[in-house]
């Protein structure tokens, strides 16, 4: 390159450098800082604007304006049923939103949108992340339960697969638990339904999970039945706070440390003994190995998951899911059984005939179609509460109706409203114990309409690959409990036919915690 070509270039560069040096250094730094801020914030600003546009396109149910989050949070906690019903009627087969403290509750209605949720990939809509947020698992349990949820596979496979093998033990505990908590008497005795349901379900589930003698240990039962309730209550309270206050609320509003200490006292010796046996025999399969939850977890756990503290947390996590939901479902069924004496004779007839043929077995419980219908109608009529199919949106997601919801929100389906739609169920506000029994008697539908079978019309257990994996054991347990009551007791309500009023806590619909059912020995 010749000198005549290069000289102007160097001259211009020197001019630019001279010009830049003529600016005050502080001005240069300010300009550079502003450029950096614009570079970093502009994409976030655009993402925020896009999110606002998406949310604004979704109709709102509830308060609006500057204090909408505060007012909406309070109203939804105290009047969730009315708010959800309003949205369901105003926006059928659509999506609407409800304001909360620092977020929106996104509600989807109708079969098509439920199917969209069911078909979405885990990279789009996450059930695990939604459960972690709903139950505030980071504070009520442990973050590890969310990061490595291998215990879900335990519930889906060995826990479900062993129901038939272990059902005799479950039946034995049902008989023993009722004998201890409701001794048969000739005179009518009032029984607190909610509390007793938790006690009996807690014992029955723990006989299956952990066996004797721990399933009857008063401190262990008190721990895991109360812990289940505390997790749900603590989570509801923590969710009333904005995100930046949740760590503080979580620290002071949960009993996790004390619960872990109590659980450690009961479970650590058992776990350490199992680990020692593996070491002794250099194998996970050793002589006399118990067929229970701890063994199933140890078979699947790897690395640091095979520590006592991690395994204890997994046991508690499964207990929470199994005991709280099953206890409330059983309590609802108990209220309905006492309120509808006309169903007792046909149910008893079916149970007696089936047990005479097949004994007290899983097979026999599976054959009890009228009892299955009664349980499913209970779950349809008074179970499911406000939300099922909850999913955290991980990336912007467009539903089949064209509505797009932004990443970061949680979307759910209002189960109670869905199960009380006339287009789905005839006379939906009437309890019809044999509704599903009659549906199964239609040609070609004998295998449909079972309690364990989710569908787009029956969403108590969710749908698709994320349908509740514990529903099989829960249904067999509830049916076994009700069958035992029918064979051993007469039941009634103090006010004939009047079920104690349900209690709504935010979107959760629970049976009355103060209602009583009257028992006497079967006459």
UniProtKB/TrEMBL annotation:
The keyword Membrane belongs to this UniProt entry's keyword annotation: yes
Superkingdom, natural source: Eukaryota
Record: residues binding heme: 468
Annotated GO MF terms: heme binding; iron ion binding; monooxygenase activity; oxidoreductase activity, acting on paired donors, with incorporation or reduction of molecular oxygen
UniProt keyword terms in alphabetical order: Heme, Iron, Membrane, Metal-binding, Monooxygenase, Oxidoreductase, Transmembrane, Transmembrane helix
Transmembrane segments: 20-42, 54-77
Co-factor requirement: heme
InterPro entries named in the record: Cyt_P450, Cyt_P450_CS, Cyt_P450_E_grp-IV, Cyt_P450_sf
Entry similarity comment: Belongs to the cytochrome P450 family.
Name by which UniProt lists this protein: Cytochrome P450
UniProt source species: Lentinula raphanica
